[in-house]
Design a protein that fits this description.
seven-stranded antiparallel sheet; alpha+beta; Glutamine Phosphoribosylpyrophosphate, subunit 1, domain 1; eleven-stranded mixed sheet
Length: 807
């Protein structure tokens, strides 16, 4: 009997040991994770900010001063050492984020997570993310080996940190997911830039628009999706003279849209990905110095999207926010200029129907058969055999949809034409901006930028302000790219590109300021076709009205505008709804809600209830108004917010003002206002009964979530901040201003910055999320722009990176 007990005890011990050291489904190997020597406990300490570290490949010593915000100020003697140091330091503080983002971009999450990520990985492979990164590397290999060497320097720096890292000290996410970092490469930097290109590529609704056109006809389509709204306040002022442009728009061919149907399209970027930026001239500044501001609107994540650094050599000195994986400062300033970006959401993705031969080795083009290129995507899956996905490429680009993916047609498919696949040298733009001294240098730096389309704002210590809408834009015929096109017709190809010098821009405009907030870039007078993808129409008008309201502006005014919670969208519809709604059948509770929103001042402050009522009411209204577009059997999209409000106020008896679920087809906008209000009131009562109130801060419940959504312990919830989408302070539930920067062009510039996170990617560090409370409160931190390689009283530690000695 004692031997049986011994065997049972041994089996149980072995079972517990196996369970604690084996990944079971989505559960990590808890033994490794909780190990007191190598587990999560090793991640509680802060990163070292003093001492000396030998880095292979360095030519000379690099000094890194850390200030009290854990911002590294890097002083190198040459650019190669600078980018090695940048790679090393970024890996030191953000290694897991750095690598995980490029795994996501490459469609390699199944290697880490398992089969649950296969659909995502297939989508990214078929989107051509890896292919686009390869094209970028190929371009640099052929045309710009200097930039490629800098990208390799960055990779060498990342790898120097990885090679020095003891597995016991791997970032906690590696331990949780039970895998280890791999070597960095230039292609990974290209993948990171492809990831950002995808996230900022605009709505890309060609296939959905095609289905809408088939269902409602051309007249109704043009009413619901116009090329220009009735109110346009574009990025480039309306009075701009375009007469110098001497290249004509591509002539309209006789081709017709292909009215095919598809039930499901691939995941699109977040519709709120955008930003604000602006600059005022010296004449419009209280101090006589130009002032510039930028606040990119992205998903609110931990670790944060941005990592703040100072990067200095004897030839240049730049400071600002960079993205882990990319070289240089992305949104920032140097001793002479400042710059920042917003998303221009130009239409640079078009879709083509492809007709294959019987064995799908060729496709029809210009009356002949043209060979396809086969790319086999080998998707490795943790714990399972690899999945091989055959993706066909045409001269348009990858055939994303075919019989093997979201389509059932044996002999046809849908190919994507995306400027992101064209290669190019986006990284060089930022390398050159970091060194730029004046307007001419800024313009020359932008020439390398292909995609995504961006509004680059500029200010200089010489007194200039400017804004260029930059990207590589096809010169399209009128309406090209709205709908699915016939891929066999050469007339539907992109015939040429708009010359870079004819990209819309403005320098030192008479009004004394430049600004962009993802609105329409130009008015109807611009001589090239610019597709309306539902451009923002509220933030831009609030910003421009603000800068037209007085003669002089200060840094404090810029702070106030960043944190402005005025809800122009609600202001333009709520009074109309209240005036034109029959309230005779309202209950006492509904009358209370009615009075609450009637008393609202259209400010989305956290203690107001008006924003919550508006959000719930408009959400119900939008849903019942556009129920025609709620069809699971067809990929569709519904009209833009601005046009929806325009129709409600000006076409209140249109045929769309009905509810399909009811027998009564004679509803008007007034009826929809009432029906939606009653639905909203019922939901608000439920919220009040459950939570005690529906004040905006509680209702919106902003949070900053960890990149792994299943890790609430590494996230921050219920952050007290106002704003919302379409508001200058564009903070919604988990999306908003990911970096706020204000730079006054003194000599040298003085700057403020803040973002919703912290410099460290380590959840055990005090610097992981320490900026969030100040960010939510609308506060800023002064950026300590060191002018020499000497510490001041804000520096808490200095680390020296030295060449490896081979003596």
């Amino acid at each position: 009997m004692k031997y049986i007990k011994l065997l049972i005890s041994f089996a149980l011990t072995f079972g517990v040991f196996y369970a604690l050291n084996t990944k079971l489904g989505s559960i990590p190997p808890l033994g490794k994770f909780l190990n007191p020597v190598s587990g999560i406990w090793q991640n509680e300490t802060d990163e070292a900010v003093i001492g000396e570290v030998a880095i292979p490949g360095l030519e000379e010593k690099v000094t890194v001063h850390y200030d009290e915000q854990m911002i590294p100020h890097v002083f190198a003697e040459n650019e190669h050492d600078l980018y090695k140091a940048q790679g090393y330091l970024t890996a030191k503080h953000r290694l897991w984020q750095l690598e995980f983002q490029t795994h996501a971009a490459a469609g390699r999450l199944s290697e880490i997570i398992g089969e649950a990520a296969l659909e995502y990985d297939r989508t990214e492979r078929r989107r051509g993310m890896d292919y686009g990164a390869e094209q970028a590397i190929a371009y640099m290999e052929q045309y710009d080996t200097e930039t490629l060497r800098f990208v390799q320097d960055y990779a060498d720096g990342v790898n120097a940190f990885i090679n020095q890292l003891d597995p016991n000290n791997y970032p906690v996410e590696y331990k949780l997911l039970d895998y280890r970092p791999e070597a960095w490469s230039p292609k990974k930097t290209a993948l990171l830039l492809m990831y950002m290109t995808k996230m900022l590529a605009g709505y890309d609704d060609d296939l959905e628009y095609t289905n809408v056109l088939r269902q409602i006809g051309e007249e109704n389509f043009n009413l619901l999706f116009p090329d220009f709204f009735d109110s346009t306040d574009p990025v480039i002022p309306k009075d701009t003279d375009w007469s110098y442009i001497d290249v004509p728009q591509t002539k309209l061919p006789e081709s017709q849209a292909v009215l095919d149907t598809i039930a499901e399209t691939i995941e699109k970027p977040h519709p709120d990905n955008g930003s604000n930026n602006w600059a005022v001239s010296a004449e419009k500044s209280v101090t006589g110095n130009p002032i510039l501001a930028n606040d990119p609107h992205l998903g609110l994540k931990l670790p944060s999207t941005w990592f703040v650094m100072q990067l200095s050599t004897p030839d240049h000195n730049a400071f600002g926010a960079t993205i882990p994986g990319a070289l240089s400062i992305i949104s920032g300033f140097n001793q002479n200029i400042a710059w920042g970006e917003t998303n221009a959401t130009r239409d640079v993705i078009d879709w083509y129907k492809i007709e294959f031969n019987d064995n799908r080795t060729q496709y029809k083009y210009n009356g002949q058969w043209k060979d396809v290129t086969l790319r086999v995507e080998d998707i490795k899956i943790r714990g399972k055999e690899s999945y091989k996905d055959s993706v066909l490429y045409t001269h348009h680009g990858p055939v994303v949809y075919d019989k093997n993916f979201k389509s059932e047609n044996e002999h046809s498919g849908y190919a994507m034409r995306w400027i992101g696949h064209d290669g190019g040298n986006n990284q060089k733009t930022f390398i050159e901006l970091n060194k730029a001294k004046d307007y001419e240098d800024y313009v020359n730096a932008l020439k390398y930028w292909n995609a995504p389309a961006q509004n680059f704002v500029f200010a200089s210590t010489k007194g200039d302000i400017a804004l260029w809408i930059q990207g590589k834009f096809p010169n399209k015929w009128e309406g090209q790219g709205k709908f699915l096109m016939d891929g066999s017709n050469p007339e539907n190809d992109w015939q040429s590109y708009i010359p870079q010098e004819f990209n819309a821009h403005t320098k030192n405009p008479e009004r004394g300021f430049v600004s962009s907030a993802n609105q329409h870039p130009v008015d109807e007078n611009y001589p090239f076709y610019v597709f309306n993808d539902g451009y923002e129409t509220y933030r831009n008008r609030v910003i421009n009205t603000y800068f037209n309201s007085k003669d002089k502006f200060s840094v404090q005014d810029f702070k106030d505008l960043h944190n402005n919670n005025h809800n122009l969208k609600a202001k333009e519809l709520v009074p109309y709804m209240l005036e034109h709604m029959d309230i005779s059948s309202f209950t006492e509770y509904e009358k209370t809600v009615y009075k609450e929103i009637k008393d609202w001042n259209f400010s989305n402050d956290i203690d107001e209830v008006g924003p919550s009522i508006w959000r719930q009411w408009y959400g119900e209204l939008y849903k019942i108004l556009w129920d025609e577009f709620d069809d699971e059997s067809t990929a569709l999209t519904s009209p833009f917010t601005y046009q929806t409000i325009y129709l409600l106020k000006n076409h209140g008896e249109h045929e769309f003002m009905d509810i399909l679920a009811t027998d009564d087809k004679t509803e008007t906008a007034k009826d929809l206002f009432r029906i939606a209000f009653k639905e909203a009131s019922a939901r608000l009562k439920e919220i009040r009964d459950e939570d005690g109130n529906y004040a905006w801060g509680n209702y919106k419940a902003t949070y900053v979530g960890h990149l792994l959504q299943a890790l609430p312990a590494f996230s921050r919830f219920d952050i007290p901040i106002g704003g919302d989408r379409n508001i200058v302070n564009a903070t919604s539930k988990n999306h908003g201003p990911s970096w706020r920067m204000i730079v006054e062009m003194t000599t040298p510039p003085t700057a403020l910055g803040i973002y919703p996170g912290g410099q460290s990617g380590n959840p055990g560090s005090q610097y992981y999320d320490n900026f969030i409370d100040d960010w939510a409160a609308g506060k800023y931190h002064r950026l300590n722009f060191l002018q020499s390689n000497e510490a001041n009283n804000t520096i808490i530690g200095t680390q020296t990176l030295t060449p490896v000695s081979y003596d």
